[in-house]
Amino acid sequence: MSNKIKIFGHNLQETTVVRVLDTKTKNEVNLPNYCIAFIGKESRNGCKSIGIALLDEVPKDENFASWISVGDKLGNICVGDVLFVNPYKEYIRILYRNGSNANTIFLTSTCNSNCLMCPQPPKEKDEVEEEWIHRQLLCTPDEVEELCITGGEPTLVPDRLCSVLRDIYNKNPLCHVHVLSNARLCKNVGLVKSIKSIGLNNLTFGIPLYSATPEIHDYIVQAKDAFDDTVTGIYNLASAGIDVEIRIVLHKQTIPELKRLTDYIYNKFPFVRHVAFMGMEHMGFVKKNWNELWISPEQYQDDLYKAIRFLNLRGMYCSIYNLPFCLCQRGLWPFLRNSISDYKVDFREECQCCDMKDDCGGLFHYQRNVMPVIPIRVSGLNPSYRNLKYNQT
Ligand code: SF4
Description:
The protein is built from eleven helices and 17 strands. It is an alpha/beta fold. It is globular. It starts with a strand and ends in a 5-residue tail after the last helix. The site of iron/sulfur cluster has 15 residues, from loops.
């Protein structure tokens, strides 16, 4: 599954954001071959909408102002999806997937850190145009329940962040909004107050913290004083009543730190809502820093188990993201979550004969050929392991 679809032909004059109103299959229109997406004239609250049909010729119907050919690859575009259509670069990007677990607003391409394992390395200059974000939100369903705001570092564009949060609030004040941020700029109490004043009650900041030793954290994020800034930011957010989640990416630099870090989190931040331990994505800077980062999940199982057990026994809610059952020891299974975005998740051939496949969070698509998997037969397991997945103690 991909978020990007190639355009083979069009008569568009401009880049646009649209919502899919309707789709028709080849059988419904009884025509073979390639598909054409029609950009309709209809607009609701300023949001352009489109219907998509599969036809074998360029449309002549005047109800449709414009058309795009996407060959025979309509992909998985569904009714309710929001699309960014760029005729100049000849692609469609799916900005919002109806029913997806991973709808994201990309706020900026710049960052004030430069993490060794950043899967999406920041750019020197911000490439995001705010207008498109607002149009994306305009087309997003009013009843949207969950959105993630990411970057780059969202707090680097504080006015944009607040204005997007306000748009979400106006759409659905109960929407669960997850801001992925290093929180360094949240050392500025004024910014935290501005964010809080918007009134979103289900707002969480997901904040990476990689070591209890400032120098090590600063080295991993490649930014001086980052640890101190982030710690101050966490306190400011919590003081304002904004939920905090700590995120720890698991790699060669963080594994030796886990014990001290979990101890630190428990003692300094007992108020955090959630601690997420994350398998590393093999993307972006990870490839460049591979030797400094790579450690197989098998090698860190005991460290991870001890860290999670420590927090869990003290009543802190923990999760493991991005790792499948077969790469984790069984004591960790209750903490595994299906966290990989639905359009990135994949399985290996061998997974077809695994009894845990229906519950498994799978692998990142681009990692599927390098991660070793070991299909699991439930007959060889204590049946309670399946239930454990859902019952964190
Ligand atoms: S073998 Fe495949 S389906 Fe089974 S636990 Fe591993 S990754 Fe998941």
